[in-house]
């Protein structure tokens, strides 16, 4: 198990593709692992206190990581526990393993992820499980659970996997969605614009576009794109 | 001064095929041995290595409003970082490269000259700014004429003297290199939502036909004796059955002669070589086209070879791009460049298992194999067919039937039915491939100092770790494919820019433009131009590019 603590309060954002693979590397290699502090290239030990405990494939990020981007990007196995907030792009392109965030998450959580699991105990911001600008497919598999609330543009262009939000969410949920499932237990704004497939389940109030037709157990659309997506009230 | 020692030289223009010899360079030119002092030379040991002239890409879209709009449309392209800034500039892009990346990647495959094949005249200041941002290679840009209102007007009036004066005026104002024609008449018709479907369809409001526009422009181009011939993107591009239009177009120049070069270059012919009547029964028309090209001595073509993977379609042929957007459902951008032409941009991915894409891939190769090597230039119509960084793949494919057989296994079986690729036994020799990438494109462009290693040529040289005496391209296609991507040296104007496949220095090439004003009476069109500019959004005195705007212009005067 590798434990990282920020050495000071970061003034600018840090870009660090920290994955559990790091915990299996030698201490020297871990210390000199390259990260970006703003425009400057730094080694990991210049920004973080590093501590090793046992050889478990696990990363514990202890402290405020809200300015640290790309944590767990592309990871395929192992576990990351963040004991605090986490910055943008956490779990992007993730292929497997598990990320637990005890605080809040920023934008682009699990963007374009293929498999694995992300759990956020607090709130998350916008663009969860989305496709990056210009790409045509968002999240394709795996699961993201937010215990609190989430922002706008959840699951845009998503094609598989499950996003569950236990609180409420903002506008534009499942835009251009192609497959998979979004569950929102609270309220949200507009859902399913240009949706082609998949299912959106909502517990509270939401805004339905006029381009959905009533079906037996909910609504189907978006008819503008001959979509067969479903919106269901739970 | 450079002394390239013991290299194995292939230089088709000078009839050299695998001869062991030394090459001497002084002041950026190739010189006789007696011209240099050997003690002062930097010696490059080219023992058992292949020494060629730098590659010449005569048709690529590397600068100007189209590729820039493409970059804006495709943010995902900019996530591939090829090189972070250090001694050299940062370069990015998967297929749509940033300007620094374009120059570096050309040098990295041993190419040293590249021509922007379609520049909207009103956008020429921008085109030249972007060309100036491309390092290493020498450049030129071809302004588009085929849909320009004064061209229609002078063609309709059958006033060739005025047409010639207009071409000379336009080349000077845009600092252009030659006459590019894109879907003549069709782009104008598109401004009313239409297109032209045959050589005899009339262009709305002008009473002229594509046949007349092409013929008049070719005649005017030949009377002006410009270094490059008319460079034509045919009508009906991307339409099943269009190979007949292509053949009919080529035959327009039968009987016309120029001793130095072709009188018509038909570009990215792959996109204009489809038989069949719809996308359901589309097939290859490459064989018929190859027969016609081989039988004519005044027409050349380039391949427009698609490469599987990401590409971006961008042409001045706006109606075709609209069709493509409808066909693929991909993003689309359209540009109307003020009574001179238009353009469209559509992202595209060529997939081996997609029957149409596999067919396009096979047709490109058929053209490359079936047309004589002194009439077909290797190109991908970058970025329409794919990245030029894949030229080594095409070179290897042309040289090895075994490699083609292996590639055929992974593509849609539709190819077997609709093309003859599998049955073609032709294996081009190294000499022929060098012709298709060096001496021929230089000749097609009329650039005498390019594409060869004779005395007086520019010292643009590529040295590869290939020994023609030992490597059998037919069997060792993987060696060809790998080594052409990794020159031991690329030398531009006598300076080493690439060493062992990596950029070691940044140089700046020239931008060629052609001045034909001496051949015509410029006064003759003065009034026509004044009345043209009355309806234009740019004042005449503000229109165009002056020398001081460019980094290193090189004027080629036509006498």
From TrEMBL, chain A:
Annotated Glutamate synthase alpha subunit C-terminal domain residues: 69-200
Q: NCBIfam families annotated for this entry?
A: one_C_dehyd_C
Pathway involvement? One-carbon metabolism; methanogenesis from CO(2); 5,10-methenyl-5,6,7,8-tetrahydromethanopterin from CO(2): step 1/3
Q: Which Gene3D superfamilies match?
A: Glutamate synthase, alpha subunit, C-terminal domain
Source organism phylogeny? Archaea, Methanobacteriati, Methanobacteriota, Archaeoglobi, Archaeoglobales
Per its record, the protein catalyses: N-formylmethanofuran + 2 oxidized [2Fe-2S]-[ferredoxin] + H2O = methanofuran + 2 reduced [2Fe-2S]-[ferredoxin] + CO2 + H(+)
The protein's matches in InterPro entries, at most eight in alphabetical order, are given as:
Formylmethanofuran_DH_suC, Glu_synth_asu_C, Glu_synth_asu_C_sf
The molecule here is called formylmethanofuran dehydrogenase
SUPFAM superfamilies, A to Z: Alpha subunit of glutamate synthase, C-terminal domain
Q: Which organism is it from?
A: Geoglobus ahangari
Residues forming coiled coils: none
Any GO MF annotation of the entry: transition metal ion binding
Q: What is its EC number?
A: 1.2.7.12
| Keywords attached to this entry | Oxidoreductase
Q: Please give the PANTHER family that the UniProt record associates with this protein.
A: TUNGSTEN FORMYLMETHANOFURAN DEHYDROGENASE, SUBUNIT C (FWDC), TUNGSTEN-CONTAINING FORMYLMETHANOFURAN DEHYDROGENASE 2 SUBUNIT C
Question: Which one GO biological process term can you cite for this protein?
Answer: methanogenesis, from carbon dioxide
From TrEMBL, chain B:
Concerning CDD domains, the annotation shows: FMDH_A (cd01304)
Record-linked SUPFAM superfamilies: Composite domain of metallo-dependent hydrolases, Metallo-dependent hydrolases
Q: What start-end ranges are recorded for coiled-coil regions in this protein? A: none
Instruction: Name the Enzyme Commission number(s) assigned to this protein.
Output: 1.2.99.5
- Read off the InterPro entries from this record: Amidohydro_3, Formylmethanofuran_DH_asu, Metal-dep_hydrolase_composite, Metal_Hydrolase, Metallo-dep_Hydrolases_sf
Query: What Gene Ontology terms describe what this protein does at the molecular function level?
Result: hydrolase activity, acting on carbon-nitrogen (but not peptide) bonds; oxidoreductase activity
Which enzyme class, named as a word? oxidoreductase
Per UniProt, residues of the Amidohydrolase domain are: 42-498
Q: Which UniProt keywords apply?
A: Oxidoreductase
Q: Which NCBIfam families match?
A: one_C_dehyd_A
* UniProt-recorded name of the protein: Formylmethanofuran dehydrogenase, subunit A
Q: Which species expresses this protein natively?
A: Geoglobus ahangari
